[in-house]
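ARCHIVE CARD
SHELF: 3
SLOT: left
DATA:
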Amino acid sequence: MSYDGISVNVGWTTVNSHTSPQSGTNLDPWYYNYAERTAGLAASEVRALFAVASRPEVVSLAGGMPAVSALPQELVIDSMNRVMREQGPVALQYGSGQGIPKLREQILDVMAMEGIRASADDVVVTTGSQHALELVSKLFLDPGDVVLAEGPSYVTAIVIFRSFQADTHHVLMDEHGMIPESLRENIARLKAAGKKIKLLYTIPSFQNPAGVTLSWERRLEILQIARENDILVLEDNPYGLLHFDAPPPAAMRSVDEEGVIYLGTFSKTLAPGFRVGWALAPHAIREKLILANEAAVLSPSSFSQLVVSEYLDSIDWRAQVDRFRGVYRERKEAMIGALSEYLPGLEWTDPQGGFYVWLTLPPYLDSKQMLPRAVKELVAYTPGTAFFADGGGRNNIRLSFCYPTPEAIKVGVRRLQSVINGELDLLETFSATGPLETVRDRGYSAPPPNLD
């Protein structure tokens, strides 16, 4: 059908240029029908990189993919076979919205390694810890609410908070983690502006993306600040067991049972493909989490839970975690060694566990704009802007050492050196203020790691 306007074909329907905007657009006929909260959904730099990083010729220092090759496959295969042989009908059936009781008991043993004592009744198994993060956000966040988080912070947490139309405000960090005084200042400023602060989100051990660890003294002080201001703490702890030497301080949940929701996962200490995580919550919140879990997925995968439970029951899983520590320690040392060799004029964090190094570039470089050159040079990284809700981190890069081999890490950092020097050469050519020192000049003095 046509009128005096122009008809545009959009697939199975036709949108006329003179019809109401509610008809949609020529790219999406349902554009004006989406809920307002979908405005917060956008592809992150991390997601966009996975397609590039999967090319075999590209050294990916981008995604935080665990080294699952360090997990003996026969251990997992044996666990799967036993589950199907002995519990097949249960494994293939719907399960509880809270999770299998035996696995919840075993999760208590995992958390005990970080000082947590709890009841299995307060554990809710989820489809990965990110699912738990989404459920907590669904329970607590209304449009316009505020979440306080470290700056930088986990990219998908920021996306989830935004999807519920909440605002993320960043708290300054240094080499010892979140700065309590900055937290106090943020709370005072936001309260004075009439804002409602619902959650304090933190990754206290080997933080993603900065790799730093919150000190014990600061953990206690931050918990006290949260209690004084009636702010629920959301402690996300995927990396806590993956320390290289000394373990991190005990979990924040170990000293505050009522003010902290603790999120854990088997993605980093077993394998992400099982998609098994959990939340440990105060009793009243636990009950709502179960209802939210059932509303979202009915029940987490019985098969995955039983396989993980069988794995924990039948092998020395602590020894396997220790094996992962050795793998990641070797790769972190390769990363630090390569940075020292190829980019000696820059600054970076030196994590004592986890997956990530946070690199600071000269202030006049933009890591996001530099990324196409990096892809051309066959190296991938994650721009620092992915980890800020306010556009910060432009001269930062998150480098992941968890997935590539030590040899590949060295190749990747050498390629990154070429990328950075190429950008500096370009700036020098068109600079109106004179020559710029490059990272080839070992005398270059970079600022300390930019964690704010």
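SLOT: right
DATA:
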Amino acid sequence: MANAQTAPQAHDHQQSKKAAASGWIGSALEYYDFFIYATAASLIFPQIFFPSGNPRIAIIASLATYGVGYVARPIGAFVLGHLGDTHGRKNVLLICMFLMGFSTIAVGLLPTYAQVGLWAPALLVLMRLIQGFAVAGEISGASSMILEHAPFGRRGFFASFTLQGVQAGQILAAAVFLPLAHYMPEDQFNSWGWRIPFLLSFVVIVAGYIIRREVEETPAFTEETAHNEVPKSPIVMAFQDSWRDMLRVVCMSLMNVIPVVATVFGAAYAVQAAYGIGFKKDIYLWIPVLGNMLAVIVIPLVGNLSDRIGRKPPIIVGAIASGLLSFGYLYAISTRNVPLAILLSLLMWGVVYQGYNAVFPSFYPELFRTRSRVSAMAISQNLGTAATAMLPALFAAVAPPGSTNIWFTVGAISFAITILAALACASARETFRVRMEDLGDPNAQPVPEAEYERQRRAAMSHGHGQVAGTAA
């Protein structure tokens, strides 16, 4: 009898680890693509894809193309969310990866403004639209897949590896640019060197396919399929059942303002000659690299903490504190203080922001039912991030080169947004002690604390805590 019980447990443990590892690696590979674009939009594209006569207009236009990717996200969320809820989590993740990979390779092959004129920015926008469409299904699909494979009492820890992979992808993106920006002559880097990271996405496609084809579909989705409970219109069901929680997720997802400030506007503010700050490109690129290296360490710790104290406290504290720190970070750039900018980046982005970043991959899908989970999360999260889409261009417009108190203007907007996100989280119900089959039910009763702790300790004793070594 003992053997009959042990075998399924061992299988489940392996699937939990494999799902977390796949989510980690898949997110890292896909967000490598997404972030190399963000880096290039800040550092390179104003010079090569837009008219050079007005540097201010070129900066705003280049940062606007970054925002276009977020505008496409809601469309991708509707399409890919539907596919994730009707055809499975695994299939939609493969689609996301292929779309992202091929569109990124295409960016690396585009002609410049000097070569084809306005066709250059037009084609750039088209590729960015495809990127945004593809990435819309990644986090919701990966988070749902990991959550549905994870043992009760460890969902926050396991799901956090989705975002640890995202941070690792950003490290890789900046790390690829660092040696190129440092060692290549500037004219060569601006003419062809910047293309190398985009063309390397071919490796992303091959490696990602090999990894993700090995992942099994989740037990929750498989059970729905077996009982013919897969909905024909999960999007309609999501709005009918969960519109209040979807609205909360939209507001909480506005926390995307912090990485926008740190990596996009912060980079342009520090590096672009029109602002007059004068950080060297290779020096500034170390700021997001160091911040994300710290985040990779912090994320699973915060994910584990959310399994102990709940999802809401880390998100609320992370939102308010990171909003406050955005003032200091931008002020450090304005005073040309590289050590202080790096220190505040580590605090704002590498530590405090992770209170939100590490927890939302478990909290968001826990708010919704299995049958509409991917759709509800993808749509609401991507609507929220789309609302931050044009923030880099807005920041550049309200605090343009030559204006005063740039750090305070941008910091105040960022702080107001993080307060709204914290209030949305405070109004939501807690989910960490709710069983998988009861998730999405506003009236679901959480498991009593003592019983929850017993099950959580049992899950940890079976080796679930070792996934960090597997994933990383």
